[in-house]
Amino acid sequence: MKYRKFGSTGFKVSALGLGCMRLPTKRLMPLQADVPKSIKLIKSAVDKGINYIDTAWLYHFGASEKIVGMALQGGYREKVHLVTKSPLFLVNKAEDFDKFLNKQLKKMQTDYIDTYLFHSMNKSGLEKLKKYHLMDKMIEAKKEGKIKYIGFSFHDTLPVFKEVVDFYHWDVVQIQYNYMDTAIQATTEGLKYAAGKGMAVVIMEPLKGGRLANPPAEAWEVMARSKIKRSPVDWALQYLWNLPEISLVLSGMSNLQMLNENCDSADRSGVSSLHEEDLNIIDDLIKIYRKKILVPCTSCKYCLPCPSGVNIPQNFAILNNVALERSNVRKWLNKRDYKKMANSPEKLNQAKSNGNASLCINCGICLEKCPQEIKIPDELKKVHLILKKGKKIGDIYEKTS
Ligand code: SF4
Ligand code: SF4
Fold it and tell me: What is the pTM of this model?
């Protein structure tokens, strides 16, 4: 494992961190983690040299923090930098901050959290932070020894990012960044801005919600040009580790194979390790993906539950898969998956949230929950037009025509 500077903390972190949002599952809807497999995965990650474990109140509907706590018993806690997040969207008074923090410590069976982040900071989160003096609460918790380092994870635009960065002398920031997302959210400018202030910059969504791991056929042809043979995941990860401003790349690994492959990638990583020809290949990959990805959904599921039972991320995943596929058979299989989803309230499985796009009643509840700022109801209309009504993608989305 390679280790990198963690901002100005003086601490070194593994180049690869384990994000516990996508732990192994027994069931997807409703999401239920496979506890023994998850514990094994976390322990194996630490045994392989990963010393940064990231979780959150929300992940696996609260189960992720508990599982992390279980996995870190027996001497593992001391080996890792443990990170979790204050669920800012659920904090509605100053005391809520302590309530969640104390519960999280208990759930994770630990006396302290190494880095505590305000989860999913955005413009309204910053207002809330000011309104309830939550920074004071953070500082107080740090003085009490419950937290070592302070930061925030971020989903909003560059001007808001700079405003938040300038608001406090933070230790850590976690941003969404990958070779497709250099110009949205914090952007490359924001990445450099935070690193320039001595903050440790942690990357989430390095594979754009898994999208970059499953490239279209044209992308495979581009990658084949390289003398060094790399998997699509390796290309995406090396792109990030090549940048000096990045401290650590989080990956939400769901099985041991992913863990092993990503650790092998991390072993080969290094700042400025990519050559011009490698970067040219990545430029060409970007051009191909730009034409193909229709809805930038990362499957974070923050928009769920939908009161009408629409499985929002699944609808978008099917549409993107259809757009990425060249094989007509696989396109047809994806469209068939859409047709299997419920198209009326009577057919909804109350336990499963299996509704298709046609069930959206445009209530708008999901809109402010989406960190990618996807216009969900509008996009769902397009999903239905393409997957059910047989409209051509090129007629609905100009960029893919
Ligand atoms: S706008 Fe549509 S998808 Fe979003 S919560 Fe309302 S019904 Fe569900
Ligand atoms: S639509 Fe937005 S909130 Fe919902 S899963 Fe996709 S990225 Fe997440």
Answer: 0.79
